[in-house]
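Morning. Coffee machine broken again, so started the prediction first thing and wrote up yesterday's gels while waiting. Chain of 315 residues, entered below exactly as on the submission form.
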Amino acid sequence: MSTPDSQVSRASGRAGRRSIDVSEELFAPVAPDVELCYQTFGDPTDDPLLLVMGLSGPMTWWDEELCEQLAEAGFHVIRYDNRDTGRSSRLRARVRRDHLVRAFTTGRGPAPYTMSDLAADAVGLLDHLGIDSAHVVGISMGGMIAQTVAIEHPARVRSLTSIMSTTGRRTVGWQSPTLLPRLIAPRRRGVDSFIEDSLVTWAMIGSPAYPNDPEVLRTRALETFERGVSSSGVMRQIMAILTQPDRTGRLRSLRLPALVLHGLDDRMVHVSGGRATAAAIPGAELVLVDGMGHDLPPALFATFVEAIRRTADRA
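Came back before lunch.
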């Protein structure tokens, strides 16, 4: 396993915790015209853990505190910006509105790239780091990517954790109909508009039992904007989601430790998606969290870390 070119040591804020090595943000070429921005936490000799974020989310949506807790649990944590997100490469293909509507209603359409392409990006990052296999954790669209990596590149996945995601079957894991206009609406320009739009979105999809601090949301939205946002990139990712295949049959072929974690109050991906995923993967553990929506509340970090570590230890 190669060690990232540049690392800094970050002391933990809690007494008794060791300092965590945190790399600078680095770049990995993973496909023609695609370069991913990534960052690592922890000891490179620990168990590699690849974190895959969801729709439009940069890697910084994996909270640093969560990454550090995972590193303390014995993982070498790798987070990255998917293509069309953050500081990773932007593609140029445009998605027409009629193509988007067709994909939403039929599951078919000319997608600029597929879930398999996004999975290949993840594998390409592991190749760049010299990592033969890793524990893979994905959230929402990232869960779809993680499942696809496990299906199409099984030797590269030690364990699979799918968080608030679904199988690709159109009869499960649906979105609340009230959310679609929000997802496809043209975004207003400027940082202030972006921040206000973000506050509205997280109010709609966040965890009712674990409300977000508006100032924390503002800070994260500003950071997201400064890393780079792309409305056309979001449309390309949505097309990959809408045209993904039903993975149910292929998930049944997996033979690896798997955890499926889902909030019971998720409006973005209905909990039926998590239940269907766990039912499809032999031996998968299903953890349902009351009051959790489509986010990762800090109050639940310890729960997430313990469950991911428990799943990895089954490998």
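The chain is about 40% helix and 20% strand. Going to sketch it on the whiteboard this afternoon.
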